[in-house]
Design a protein that fits this description.
The protein is α/β, with parallel strands linked by helices. The protein has two domains: 142 residues, Cobalt-precorrin-4 Transmethylase, domain 1, CATH 3.40.1010.10; 104 residues, Methyltransferase, Cobalt-precorrin-4 Transmethylase, Domain 2 (2-Layer Sandwich). It is built from seven helices and ten strands. The protein has a five-stranded parallel β-sheet, with helices on both faces. A five-stranded mixed β-sheet has the order 6-7-10-8-9, sandwiched between helices. α3 packs across α4. The longest helix is centred in the middle third of the chain and has 23 residues. The chain starts with a strand and ends in a 6-residue tail after the last strand. Bound molecules: S-adenosylmethionine. The site of S-adenosylmethionine (SAM) has 20 residues, from β8 and β10.
Length: 256
């Protein structure tokens, strides 16, 4: 039977690759790449390819690339647009597994960070199997997440003892007036929703391009650092054409 690995590779630094990831990479016959148009995404492909060159050394493999469908920003409500986009990605992935692997071969997708965090690949494989159109086995290899890299770089725990953590996206950050969790971790904030976050006394721990040569870190009380955040993010985006950044917002404890 065909087998697919979803291998978490961490958020950029090859040193984040686990021994489990390297073991899996060395079983692969076909590495699949979904390539996005422009926006510097080729930098992320280059990082993946250099990892393969250095660590997938025990077996001959092929690389098969396909165009990653773009999300249609004019395709109606957000959830509908995401569903429609997921379906197109799913068809591309099903096509690759069907036509680019022989029976008994092993294929892999190298997943940025960890496959379980804001990544649709697991659901895509499960939906292809549920539709009964293809038969294959699959295995998940966990990776270091961008959240762990952020905590590492700022040398902080994700929560102070006993506190809750909420993980959310920039799009959803300001939907609620009050957050129950003392710590909010935000990914996917392309539109800088952070600038409108109402609790200006919260502490911000921000990181851009974590684990890469372009890494930027910033921390401090939101009211004091929000302008620096905006400036650094704008400059970085202008310089590279794209940015990936993550942050933690931590409620200050009332002074006793
Ligand atoms: C689609 S999600 C994928 C998350 C990934 N699966 C993980 O485990 O980190 C992409 C978001 O992850 C965050 N991210 C991923 N890599 C990052 C990095 N090296 N530095 C900062 N943020 C990163 C950003 O918030 C980005 O918008």
């Amino acid at each position: 039977m065909k087998k697919i690995f979803l291998i978490g590779i961490g958020p950029g630094d090859p040193k984040y690759l686990t021994i489990q990831a390297i073991d899996a990479m060395n079983q692969v016959d076909v590495f699949f790449f979904l390539e996005k148009e422009g926006r510097g995404k080729d930098d992320l492909i280059k990082i993946r390819k250099s990892m393969m060159k250095k660590y997938a050394t025990k077996k001959k493999y092929r690389v098969v690339s396909a165009r990653d469908p773009e999300r249609d920003v004019n395709a109606g409500p957000y959830e509908k647009a995401v569903d429609e986009w997921r379906n197109r990605r799913r068809d591309v992935v099903a096509g690759l597994i069907k036509s680019k692997m022989k029976e008994n071969q092993t294929g892999a997708f190298l997943i940025w960070g960890d496959p379980s965090l804001y990544d649709g690949s697991i659901e895509i494989l499960q939906s292809i199997l549920a539709a009964g159109e293809l038969r294959f086995d699959y295995e998940i290899v966990p990776g270091i997440t961008s959240i762990q890299a952020l905590a590492e770089k700022h040398r902080i725990p994700l929560n102070r003892t006993g506190e809750a953590i909420e993980i959310t996206t920039g799009r959803r950050l300001n939907e609620k007036k009050e957050h129950d969790a003392e710590n909010i971790v935000v990914l996917l904030d392309q539109a800088s929703a952070l600038k409108k976050f109402p609790d200006r006394s919260a502490d911000l721990y921000w990181g851009g391009y974590l684990g890469t040569k372009d890494e930027i870190l910033l921390s401090g009380k939101l009211a004091d650092v929000v302008h620096d955040y905006d400036r650094l993010k704008t400059q970085a985006r202008e310089r590279k054409g794209w940015i990936m950044d993550t942050y933690i917002l931590r409620k200050r404890k009332p002074v006793e």
